[in-house]
Amino acid sequence: MVRAISTLVGLAFVGVLALALFFTAKDAIQNPAPEAAEHEFHLHPRDAALSSAGYFGTFDRRQVQRGFQVYKEVCAACHSLKYVAFRDLKEIGYTEAEVKAIANQWVIEQPSINPDTGEATTRKNVASDHFPSPFANEVAARAANNNALPPDLSLMTKARHDGANYVFSLVGKGAYRPQPAELVEKFPGAKTPEGLHYNPYFANLNIAMPPPLTSDGQVTYTDGTAATHDQMAKDVAAFLTWTAEPKLESRHAAGFASVIFIAIFCFLAWGAYQNVWRDVKH
Amino acid sequence: MSFPWAKHYEPKQPLMRWLDEKLPVPRLVYNAVGAGYPVPRNLNYFWNFGVLAGAALGIQIITGIVLAMHYAANAGVAFGSVEGIMRDVNAGWFLRYAHANGASMFLLVVYIHIARGLYYGSYKAPREMVWLLGVVIFLLMMATAFMGYVLPWGQMSFWGAQVITGFFSAIPLVGETIRVWLLGGYAPDNAALNRFFSLHYLLPFVIAGVIILHIWALHIPGSNNPTGVDVKGEQDTVPFHPYYTAKDAVGLGVFMLLFALLLFFSPNLLGHPDNYIEANPLSTPAHIVPEWYFLPFYAILKSFTADFILPAKLWGVLAMFGSILLLFFLPWLDSSPVRSANYRPKYRGFLIVLLFDVILLGYVGGAEANARNVILGQIASGYYFAHFLIILPWVSRSERPRPLPGSITEAVLAKHGGTSPAQTALASN
Ligand code: HEM
User: Fold this and answer.
1) pLDDT tens across B179-225, in order?
2) Which of A160, A255, A277 minimises the CB distance to B260?
3) Atom 2 of ligand 1 has which residue's CA nearest to it?
4) Span from the CA of B52 to the centroid of ligand 1 (angstroms)
5) What value does the mean pLDDT of chain A take?
6) B226 lines ligand 1 (CB under 6 A)
7) Domains recognised in chain A with CATH numbers
8) pLDDT per residue over A115-154, tens digit each?
9) Could A163 and B305 be called an inter-chain contact, meaning their C-beta atoms sit closer than 8 Å?
10) What's the pLDDT tens digit per position in A165-202?
């Protein structure tokens, strides 16, 4: 009885699946899926070889500071960094006084309220403020960017596959390039629309962000490092790795200690197990 | 319950004697996981996974309670409050990564625990109730994990909730009404987030309660073992403590090691990058995929692409829930009196195919839905249902099992070569 019912139920599911399979196969033969330009021309990120990568990675503080400089001088014009506070910069090696100065001199001010009139105004940043957004709101941001929205960068390197390498590649040397002739030939519909820019690292190949880094020496590093295009891209990727995962170093250190501790525990537990079971065959 | 030769709790300390008279909790522990519970002597490491699941639940509850002290269940601030935990709460990153990866470890351990039950026939008489309660726990875990994933209110949280609650709209006539009622709105929003948080906090304690019943039910017949043969006498068992406490400690160590490697060195390996983007009802992600542990079921859902009497979507939803619910009937679908697959050559073969089948379903669930993958998913789903509903009932009738050992002790001694009386004597102490 059980067998009969279960066989019937089983056959119902298997039968419907067989039917579905038949239609899927038929459809695949009759209308093969069109190839997509994104599939063929999308590139995997280049390796930025950051010191934070890998299981024992740590931040190269000077590089992260250089990356902060790139963010400050280039990206901050469009991108916010809302989960990071000025005081957090102490973690990448700035002194208390430097942090205060950076906050105080930050070009974009914090939205605030005039204490006398109650009207909306702005004030200078203090160390405990988070980085202010360059735009008052989403509408303003879109209006200034050809209707595209520059995303917040705090978590960018965790919000994309292979994020650090992705950011490096996206803004690094040679990423922005003329659309390949083969592409337009093969996919006439996929021509980069007006106002967008061809960039094969971006998921759909056409990004609204104008090339932010364009020439060597765009930023003058205070530590004397030569600011080549790729160097700036790597440095900003290093900085954004830190903004997304500021606790990376303590995590790796805690992990190292925990693994050693647990390994010793395993060893002792194994010894106890051998000892307890010594006389019992099992 | 238990066997007549089980040791008895005899407190010697006056304080313990006093406590035993007033509230015999130590006695309960002694009989449940102490020397008072006789366990087959031949259990292999697959029998560690129940205890590991219990440990994983403990970790989830502890980390979860502390997280809840800092989390804000409000659609406007939930994402930011999680970032606050990651950045500003002392060791907050540790709590959050432990809880997120702890869920993966929990499901991994429970999947192995279930596979153990399938292989060694632990679902059969006299342990049907243990199995049924296990399936209830599994369902509760899935609900808990799903609602937990919604809480950080990232893109995958939001769109996952949208897709999963969308299943209910497949129900004819009343489906849409039920969906709106469950969500408290037309789409996931503050109302949904709040109730998910409430239930996510509640369900682990319900699970803990069902686990108590699960273990209670187990302790009536006692544990199964790799031979599947019943315990015949005292020489077949050892007291749980110290024998299996020692063995479980080894398993726990290995579990913790794997957990630590994941948590500290690759905490986002099993997550989806899109969940680091705040929920945005106006922007649909390119691929909506659930967490890895739901992928096989998601693949089954997606495999039903043709209407037949019922709409395709309804078939998919029925099949997806059916694929889990059929586990409730397993003890009766399999009529073979032999438990362990080691003595059931045909069943063993089909079961190994099922294992690969489920892994294939997992792959398909996460992969792009092109024709090749959809067809793979349809074949794999077909095998899944055929295995439980057609193959198993017939194989259990027709197959000829291999000869079973006379007892657990006999099997142990045969493994160690020869069965001289001297060895039997040595082995039985
Ligand atoms: C929260 C999750 C769970 C916990 C904490 C848990 C805990 C346990 C424990 C401590 C044992 C005894 C030790 C062992 O045999 O490994 C056990 C046995 C068992 N569990 Fe679970 N369990 C869970 C989920 C499940 C699920 C989802 C199923 C099946 C659908 C299941 C089926 C069984 C069976 C059949 C046994 C008896 C095994 C035997 O004696 O061979 N359990 N469980």
Assistant:
1) 999 999 999 999 999 999 999 999 999 999 999 999 999 999 999 99
2) A255
3) B53
4) 10
5) 96
6) no
7) 37-84+130-250 (1.10.760.10)
8) 999 999 999 999 999 999 999 999 999 999 989 999 999 9
9) no
10) 999 999 999 999 999 999 999 998 899 999 999 999 99
- pTM score, whole prediction: 0.94
Whether A3 sits inside 8 A of B393 (CB atoms) is yes
Right CATH for B47-426 from 1.20.810.10, 1.10.1040.50, 1.10.1410.40, 3.40.640.10: 1.20.810.10
Eight-class DSSP state of B229? P
Element (H, E) at B239: strand B237-239
Question: Which residues of chain B form CATH 1.20.810.10?
Answer: 47-426
* DSSP letter for each residue of A3-69: HHHHHHHHHHHHHHHHHHHHHHHHHHHHSPPPP-HHHHH--PPPP---TT-STT----HHHHHHHHH
Distance from CA of A119 to the nearest CA of B (A): 25
Instruction: Find residues 291-310 of chain B whose CB sits inside 8 Å of chain A.
Output: 303-306, 308
The chain B residue lying nearest A242, using CA atoms, is B87
